[in-house]
Write a structure and sequence with these properties.
The chain is built from five helices and no strands. With 89 residues, the chain is mostly helical. Helix 4 crosses helix 5. The chain is globular, with a radius of gyration of 12 Å. The chain starts with 9 loop residues before the first helix and ends in a 17-residue tail after the last helix.
């Protein structure tokens, strides 16, 4: 059973994880690649989705469902916010 999170789409979920550059580094991808993935979740690889799930302390099913929801309901991904507080682990 997927976890219930306060996000419908993967872009908002990833945005909630903290500064985009640090998140990209934690996911082992280039920040530009992360921006591409957030704009078009169909470009995520399965391994990347798994890393998003692990970094966000959730499960792959939940992350996959958020990506699928965003593919069916496209959004403008949140802009990387300067000065956003770092995510607390």
């Amino acid at each position: 059973m997927p976890k219930k999170l306060p996000f419908d789409n993967i872009a908002e979920f990833v945005h909630s994880l903290g500064e985009r550059g640090k998140t990209a580094k934690a996911l082992d991808i280039n920040p530009r690649t992360l921006t591409t993935r957030l704009a078009d979740p169909a470009t995520f690889t399965l391994a990347e989705l798994q890393r998003v799930a692990e970094y966000g302390h959730t499960d792959l099913i939940t992350v996959t469902m958020m990506a699928e929801h965003q593919m069916k309901n496209p959004i403008e991904p949140p802009a990387p916010a300067l000065g956003r507080p770092a995510r607390q682990h």
